[in-house]
Amino acid sequence: MQKKSHDRSVSNFNTELKLKGFNVFQIEDDSSAVRAYSRKDFYKICLTTGESIINYADRSFEMTGTILFFANPNVPYSWETISRSYVGYTCLFSEDFYKPADRTESLQHSPLFRIGGTPIFHISEEKREFLNGIFKNMMVEQTSNYTFKDDLIRNYINLIIHEALKLQPAENFDQVKNAAHRITNVFLELLERQFPIESKDCPLQLRTAQDYASSLNIHVNYLNKAVKEITGKATTTHISERVVSEARALLLHTDWNVADIAYALGFEYPTYFNNFFKRITGTNPMSLRPAGA
């Protein structure tokens, strides 16, 4: 019965996420499970009590007791429950929900959600009771008819974030043997998140291997070595192939001129884009335009 209840909760919060960009729910007692999370658009905060192993980027955390965990949507991770009893709360939210008027700094820059940071905190019993109350309040407001409930929920999220910032992050982690796999997965996830390009006014931000390494808070040589080892391709090859794929889509399915496409894909001048596209594909960008376009 507990498993069925958990499944219903998952279905419900998926629906709520799509509609509102936010959902909070209680974690049922569901031990001996491995959960892999790859959701691309939602941040996550978990307050859990039990014993678990969390594989996050290129590190593995063995956690016992109550922890507070912050997940960045750029970083795929897995969570293995070890103890027979495992309970707590989870809230998921989009960045658009958290900062609807673009009034706050991006969560990507937060020390809690920043890629390369340590997103796990040990929680005392006193603090656990306090945080439990916050999650319970969010669950109540989620189903209320209060006009300004979204603002109130955002305040609760901010309160959790500020409580975590007062704490010392957990450091009992090991570099796992498959670190190259994990960092490669993170890179490929981050690469894919740059697309599709939907506006000429919002050009591609990450263009080079160094850009991705900086965003992931690792040395570019480490990134290049991991990606090459796991995929057999250089980091720059993955980036170039994805940029070309997006260029093809824009040439075929939009009326943007080549200069607009070049700018949207991060090229300073159309000539640079033309040379890049021809070097990778062997043809000129205009050759992909539909007849009469």
UniProtKB/TrEMBL annotation:
<dbReference type="GO" id="GO:0003700">
    <property type="term" value="F:DNA-binding transcription factor activity"/>
</dbReference>
<dbReference type="InterPro" id="IPR009057">
    <property type="entry name" value="Homeodomain-like_sf"/>
</dbReference>
<dbReference type="Pfam" id="PF12833">
    <property type="entry name" value="HTH_18"/>
</dbReference>
<keyword id="KW-0238">DNA-binding</keyword>
<keyword id="KW-0805">Transcription regulation</keyword>
<dbReference type="InterPro" id="IPR018060">
    <property type="entry name" value="HTH_AraC"/>
</dbReference>
<dbReference type="GO" id="GO:0043565">
    <property type="term" value="F:sequence-specific DNA binding"/>
</dbReference>
<feature type="domain" description="HTH araC/xylS-type">
    <location>
        <begin position="181"/>
        <end position="291"/>
    </location>
</feature>
<keyword id="KW-0804">Transcription</keyword>
<protein>
    <submittedName>
        <fullName>Helix-turn-helix domain-containing protein</fullName>
    </submittedName>
</protein>
